[in-house]
Every structure is written in C-alpha cells, then in structure tokens.
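The passage that follows is intended for readers who have already worked through the single-chain material. We present the inputs for a multi-component assembly, then the predicted structure in tokenized form, and finally a short commentary. You are encouraged to pause after the input and sketch how you expect the pieces to fit together before reading on.
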Amino acid sequence: NAGVTQTPKFQVLKTGQSMTLQCAQDMNHNSMYWYRQDPGMGLRLIYYSASEGTTDKGEVPNGYNVSRLNKREFSLRLESAAPSQTSVYFCASSSGLQLGAFFGQGTRLTVV
Amino acid sequence: GESVGLHLPTLSVQEGDNSIINCAYSNSASDYFIWYKQESGKGPQFIIDIRSNMDKRQGQRVTVLLNKTVKHLSLQIAATQPGDSAVYFCAELGGTGGGNKLTFGTGTQLKVEL
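Having made your guess, compare it with the prediction:
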C-alpha cells in the first residue's frame, strides 16, 4: 500500500517549458488535491477534484491545468513555466469517510 | 477573502512541557477542521480532526479545542518530545461553496529544547 505517489520528486525547467506532474493514490479515495508550498509558507490550493470527472479551481489556479484521468490519478500541468512557479508541489487525496487528507512526498520544481 | 491563519509563527518549548498552538479562522461556515504536522522535506501528516458540532477532541497526547464563538482553534500537545519538532498547520474543510475544498493556514514552527 503506497498511499499517494508523486512523480517526479525533483525537476528543473527553463522558462517557457511545459511539464506534467503525476499523482496516483491507491486508497480508493474520491477527492484529490494539488497544492503548492513556497519557503516558509503554508500550502495553497491550486486545483482539486471532488470526484472522478470533476475538477475545480482553488486559490491559485492561474498558469496550471489539471486532469482527473480516473479515480486513481490526478495530474497537474504547467503549459509555460515561469520562475514564479518555483515551489514544492504536493498532491493529496481524501475520502468522504475519513476527511483528513493523505499527502504525497512532494515534487520540488525549480524554474530558471 | 476567507482565510485561516495562525497567531504565532514560532513556538519554543522545553522537552516535557505542554505545547499549545493556536489558529484563527474567519469562515464561520467551515464545518470541519484538521491539524497537520509537517517535518522538514516531507508532506503534511494528519494529526487530529474536529467537526464544527464539537468543542473538544482528544487523541494520543494531543487535544484539539474549537471555540466557534471567537473562531479559534488550538492544538495541545502533552509532554512535548523532540520528535514533535515540526511545522504545524491548521486546515478547514467546506465553508461557503467549499464542499470538499481543504484550505490551510500559514503554519507554526514548534521547536523543542532539550
């Protein structure tokens, strides 16, 4: 039982490049989330998916897109990376029965 | 907009003492609150939760108190240990149009001194 798995763990992009952050959970959870965490800051919600087939914007959605591919997978895409998107990105999932979300280990992204 | 924030950015306590970490929230419609612990280089880890129809919930060495009158949440850690050193976040779920949206506060750094 791996929980929430994120790939890659580290990534360096040049400004303007695109990439997709992958997230998968094996707990059969309905809800999945993408957050970013800047140094010394809390987690800010980018997008979330309450259930398979639905996605909604969070606090800071600009510059990002998401896809809830199936119940297990929720990907985050940066179409044209900017230095302001340098951050640690966390994926999380939760179920309606146990509302506390479980988090992945994070992806450290640097845009130069 | 609605927000969840913390009173103290850094809290230093002696090993064995009790720790109290505070959180103020502004969205009175939130119906569920969670405390998370984040160690350096790791993702947040669930500690304890509380529903808005409760005012106290206890776990192992931790207690969460909810005061809806003043929109205040606290996490009490009994007999604080060096392994408790981490950043602690409160988070709220639900609220106005929130549904399954989980929103975090800024965080408090807890430092345990030997």
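Commentary: The mean pLDDT of chain B is 86. Residues 2 and 27 of chain B are 6 Å apart (CA to CA). How closely did your sketch match?
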